[in-house]
Amino acid sequence: MRLLSIAISILCALIVTPVANAAATRVPDDSRNSSLHIQIEGGGWGSVSTEQIETVLQSVANELLAQVPNRFSATIIVTHTDSNPIALYDRGPAGEYLVRLHASDERWHLYVFEFAHEFCHLLSNYDENVSDDVRRKNQWFEETLCETASLYALERLASTWERSPSHAGLAEHAGKLGRFFNLLISEEHRHLPPQVQPAGWVSDNEDNLRRDPYQREKNDLVAKLLLPLFERSPKSWGALPYMNLDREDASASLTEYLQRWHQRVPLEHKAFVADVMTLLGVGAASPVTATLNPEAAGQQVLMVAGQSSPTER
Q: In terms of domains, do 109 and 250 share one?
């Protein structure tokens, strides 16, 4: 979960209009991730229909899953909250993921922004190795990646909706997504101080982030640094399903955490993870002895599964 800032609340006032007839033209089944099902439930959404919301959220998922074809099999139940967006550690009665969003009415930029963040948590195995008495000291990095996912989704969908929208009515909203992206990316706190390099900044702030992973402005800064890596290599979203699979990841140093990630990803993603490590200045992507079951190391485990912690993100 990420905490919404006062600035984001103000940006909610951006003038937007409904996704007119967004559900009128359905995208063909073979262009969707056939194993992913998004269900919008409950009230609180304001003047838009649940079908319109599903249309937009599916568009977000499709953008991130374009590089992870048929590798995320799940049902996600999305409900509205008057609090902060969140992906619950609890599951539904049939193992469904439970996501709550704060966006409402016709603020499609916020639906994209919020859902991309929470969906990124699902992709990165957020509920692995979680218990009430374990503090995940590298969670700040996952929060940062999910902020990156929000920026990436806004930027890509602004282009996708303008160029080749999958549903009628989305094209007219492309510019609003683009303007929201530009507003976020230009925020002062997302820029490194003069003469400060990313590695030096991480070294100075890592201990603080390991204690409190929800420091929004710090996460935002690192997210902007990571964004160009994904812009250059969109397929690298396919590396996220290999995160957080080692039982030692919760307490590992950042270097060890990223080295284990590097060890688990397929060959096509190793250069990307190595680039992340180089950017953050946390050491070379050298081999480590992972405690993960070797048979699971190369498998995608983001399937609808059984038990989870009663706590929530």
A: no
